[in-house]
Each structure stands twice: as structure tokens, then as C-alpha cells.
Amino acid sequence: MISVHDSINIMIVGVGGQGTLLASRVLGNVFMHRGFDVKISEVHGMSQRGGSVVTYVRCGEKVYSPIIEPGCADYVLAFEQLEAARWLSYLKEDGVLVASSQQIDPMPVITGAAKYPENIFATIEETGARTMVVDALALAEKAGSSKAVNTVMLGALSSLLDIPAAEWESALAETVPEKFKDLNIAAFRLGRGDQSEK
Amino acid sequence: MDKMMIGNEAVARGLWEAGCSFVSSYPGTPSTEISEFAAKYDEVYAEWAPNEKVAVEASLGASIGGARSFSAMKHVGLNVAADPLFTASYTGVGAGMVIAVADDQGMHSSQNEQDSRHYAVSAKLPMLEPADSAECRDMASAAFDLSERFDTPVLLRLSTRVSHSQSVLPLHSRLELPLKEYVKDVKKNVMMPAMARGRHTVVEKRMLALSAYAEECPFNRVEWGDTKLGIVTAGIAYQYVKEALGEDVSVFKLGMVNPLPIKALRDFAMKVDRLVVVEELDPVIEDSLKAAGIACEGKSLFTLEGEYTAAMIREKLLGETTEKRVYPEELPARPPVMCSGCPHRGVFYTLKKLGLTVFGDIGCYTLGAAPPLSAIDTTICMGASISGLHGFNKARPGSEKSSVAVIGDSTFMHSGMTGLVNMVYNKGASTVIVLDNRITGMTGHQQNPTTGKTLKEEPTPEISIAEVAKAFGVRRVVTVDPADLKELERVIKEETAADEVSVIIARRPCALLKGVKHGAPYKIDREKCRACRACFKIGCPAIHMEDGKAAVDQTLCVGCGLCAQMCAFGAIESTAKGDDLGA
Questions:
Q1: A85/B327 touch (CB, cutoff 8 Å), yes or no
Q2: pLDDT tens digit sequence for B246-267
Q3: Dist. CA B105–CA B121, nearest whole Å
Q4: Which class in CATH covers the domain with range A8-105+119-193?
Q5: ipTM here
Q6: Which fold, B221-318?
Q7: At the N or C end, where does chain B have fewer CB atoms within 10 A?
Q8: Residues 108..167 of A with a Cβ closer than 8 Å to B: which?
């Protein structure tokens, strides 16, 4: 458990369309309500179309840059395996990778120009990175929609931070559309319960 | 009350607080959300213009008419609006007028990374540059006062990281302003030579007055630290500087980047041992300092290309590097792709199959250049597909039969129409395909003149692309559903063979558009699948290999049925009952 007193750098990485933007806004709201200065950097436009996407959430007493740089992330929240590997270099020495075990083939793999790497998490663990793997897709489906992977992952991250669940859930409720509120709260709780840090 | 906002929302808040009541813009990443947020305020009239030139002209008209007015665009949009921009500098304003221009360092979603500050210098206009959302609001608001005080349009320079970063700001209330009285003033507003000469004198005097103002402008400030190193910086680069060097160095933070406060900068330079300018893209500040005889470093240390980082600044100025962990294997890239169900996919598949030369344009469909579709030969700027194809075919007689232009509905309205006029007028015989997906797609679903709705989502007459083409004298205008591959291929073959200009409208709504009904997903019959990979040729992200056979991702598939048309073995079928070919 890491306490949230100083500054904290969280990256959310995934595939365009997986809802990284929404997750970063929920996180930002959690920290803002705690009285932190918060900066979030989002991705719009061309790169949103099924490409590799990253959003940065930074909080602290005073935050300057909206960007997190290699070697500086306390947490990398990865919605997909290959993206977890791609952004690994951003993780701090003692940072934690929270990753969904979901695999989404990128176009070079679909066309046969490249192969999807095997045993990604084993390779990541060999680098010494603290890793927590979540079967987020299964949990999202259990909550009622495969689209709730982002909220499951937030739940998983929340289990590592010293912030009461109620604060997360109210930030979630103010960020997601009303009709998806219950679904998202359910997905968040499933993610929060599924702690298996290795 | 404090609120967290992206820079673009904060700009909209700022113009609203300043009593602005007229907004005319054209969407363009990273500027789009400014106008969308502005449109949410009831007190603000906000519209999408067909292009940036029209937007700025409309804005100037509103300003002459007495309303505080505003336009937003991306950097390349300002090229389109450059014509009114330079002369609006001469006329000055009625009520305050502000133009926001968002640069895209790193080209996250652009075709070049030009530095818009050059426009401020060459059009002789003041330019402010915020570094976070609070400054976005403050500067957008203050720019209107500046505009009226100095009788000039004011430029507000943004960048991707400022426009699309959220940070916290306190909110203020709106200043209610009555419409200013309109007084006819031909010497100011009719820019024919005799009057324009007089106005040029006014512009030069104004620049002197603005230079004096820059020395006291509250947006320019010095943050003193150790004086061994002094940094001059502005905008997002300021954040990287503070992140990298903390409170230890002295920083001259510019909020007004044109004209520069040269006297104050000279004083600063004299008090520090070493002066370094940290600015992304071109050495605009550095060159001005050097021209004023102030010794400094800048581009001898830092690149002219892309985005800067705090790590880069630490490395160049302090010689420090950060340890990082590396994934030990090479990883496949994940480039952006057309969405599953994208109506453009069938068009590009067919164009590639027919081996045509394709002049492309700006929009989601630029992705038709990427493998496996690999159909596009050129992408230059908004509208250049039609005009470029015309030139190509005039230079290579006969190539009309083996080439097409592809352009989106919004891009056609933006600057495709004049190209089509040129093609007809100058006796071309080329084929233009308008990819009409019923919305402006790439920038995130903005209405346009062909969609029947305004920026405020009010119903409005829908301009028919087919009727426009006919009115221009195009006799061969065909509308086709791009999800029907056979018919699409037949039409493209027929129209490219014709000896006159053809316009094909490939019409099907964007698969992500609200209200578009999706068909049931398709699935693969593993018994029938021969793993021939024919269905992979359309480059759909929902299709992949699973245990040696093709498979369709049931959560991604929207049931467009394109893949089923690719399969010679009938292995791909809809999970719906009956023969459902999508929405």
C-alpha cells in the first residue's frame, strides 16, 4: 500500500477505444477532491482510432508538466498486454504495473507482418517490475459489459492506493453517464476485489 | 468554485466570461473542443463555418458589427484564414476579436508542425500563449480587452499539450456587454489602396505601442532563482522547464510572445550568467533576442522538431539522465486503424484491387494509406485531392482512367468545391469520390453543411453534395453504398472509364455515429474456413487468427458484412437470423 501524500504519477495505456480517457478523468477527480493540484494529458484525433494510446494523470501540491516521462511513473495502468510491454520503460524503479491480461492484435499482427509477443508478463517480471495482472475483460463481462474494462482496472488500481472506496465511487458517479452508473460501480468493485499482486 | 478543465474548455470559459457573443470556427485537432464548449453557453452564438477563412471573416464581420467575436482553428487552419488575417490587422476591430490557433508539436494529428508564432510576427498582431488551463481562461478573457484597447485582432496560441491537458482553475462570472454601436467608417474598413496605405501607418504605430505594453504586460513575469542560469520560455515549454529545473534557476516566463518585451529581457539577460531560450519548434524568441543584440543559446542545444520533455532539458542543461527499465524484445507497432464497420474500408479495398492512383485528403480516411489497404498515393492538405488529381491528370493525359480523388463530406465543403469547379471549367475528365459518412469524423463528430444540423444541434437545411456537383456542371453524379462491394466496383470502373468529370458519392454513416444501428456480429464457420486470409485484406481490426483459422471478435464486430463478401467459401456468416447486411 502506497500512501498518497506527495506527488503521484499514473499512466493509463491501452488501445484507442478502450476508455483510457474516461478512466483518467475519474482518477483526476479523485485527486482533485482530495485537494491536490492535478494535471491530466489526453489524446484526441487520429491516434484515438484503434492506435496505441496513453493518458497521463499527475497530482501533487504543485504540478508543472502534464506529461510523465520514462522512468517516472508510480503506476502504469495497462488495459492490454502488448501496451503494458510498450510502456514499461515509463515505470519507476519501484513502480507498479497494473495490467489487464486482455490481448488485442494490432494491425501488423493481423496482416501477418509481425507476431504478437509470447509470455509478456513473464518477460516483464524478469525485468524486476512489480506487476499485478487482472483478468479485466472477464470481470467487466461479469459486471455486465465488456466495455467496462476501464472501470475494472480503476478498481484494481484503487486496491493499491490508500484512498477510501467511497471517494472513488463518488468520482466515478460524477464522471460516467447516469444510465451506466450502476454498471460502472459494479465493475469497479469487482476490480477492487481482484487483488493478486505478485 | 474550482473546476478541472482541458485548456480548450478553459478558453471557451474565458471568452464567455469576457462577454464574447459570437464564435465561428472550423474543427481541427487540437482546437476543436473550444468551439464545442463555447456552443454550450446560451449567451454565445456559435457556428461551424465551412472553413477557417470563412470563420475569421464572419468573426471580423461580427466584430465590426459590435459584438466581441472569436474563432478557433488548428495551425494549418490559420493558413486557410491567412488572407483575412493579414488585412484584419489593418482594419482593426469594432468590438474585441480573438483568434485561437492550436499548434500540434509532435504531429499527434496533423500533416505538418508549423509554428504559428510566425503569423503573429508577419501579420503584426499581438499573440498571447498560455501554459495551463487557468492561463487559457485568463488570457482568452484578457485578449478581448487588449483587442479593444489597441484596436487589433489578438492571437491566442495553444498547443496540443495545453489544449488537451486538464488542470484546475477557479471560475468567474460573465461580463455582460451591450452590442457596440455600429458606425460606418470607410477609412478603417474599406481596404482599397488609398485607405490601406493610411492603415499601414496605423499598424506600425500600433506595433510600437504594443511593444511598450509588452514591457508591463502582467502575463510576462520573472521567477527569480539562482542567477547562474537564466531561462526564457513560454507556453508548454515553461512547464517542462519548471519540471526539469525546479525553483533553482531564474525563469523569464513570457505570456505575450509577440511583440516581445525586449527591454525587460535585456535586463534579465544582464542579471544572469548564462541565458538559454527554451522554445519548441522555431527559434522565434531566440532570433528576436539575437537581433536585439542579446547573447543567448537555444537551438544550438535543443531540436527544431517535435515536443520537448523535462528529461531532455535536464540532460541538455544539467547533464542528468533518468534510469529506465526496458522491455527486452522488439514489439509490434500499433498504428491507428479504421474502426470496425468503417464505411471507408470497402472503398479503399476496391481502389487497391483496381490498382488506381489515389489522391487522398485530410480526415479519418487518410488511414487508407496504411497497410493492408495501402491505397492512397498522396495526402497534402484540405482539398488537395481534387485539385491535385486535376494537375496530375493534365500532366499525364490518359491517366484519368486509372486515378481517382477521395475526399470526405466536410473536407469537400471546406475546400473541395473550388477544386471541382476547376476540374469542370478546365475540361478535366477525372473521377472524384466523396466519402460521405454524414459527419466530420476525425475530429470527433462535428456537424457540417451536409448533415442538416448546426453546431448548436439545431436543424438546418442540408446541402446536397450531389446537387452542388450538378450545379457545377458535373453530368455524371452517382451515389453508391460502399458496403456493397460489387456495386461499388462496378460504379468505380464505369466512372473512371468515362471521358468527363464524374462524382461518386459513397454514402454510409460513420459506424461510431450515434443512432447508427449495427447489425448482429458475424462469425466464422471453422469447418468452412480454409485460412486463406482473404478476409484479412480489408484490414478490419475485428478479424484475427485463432488456432489456425480466422476469427471475428464479437465485441468489436458491428456487422457491416464486408468480410463475408471477401470469403469464397461462405465461411463468414451473420449471427443474426436471416440475411442481414448490416444497418
A1: yes
A2: 998 999 999 999 999 999 999 9
A3: 19
A4: alpha beta
A5: 0.92
A6: Rossmann fold (3.40.50)
A7: N
A8: 108-117, 123-124, 126-129, 146-147
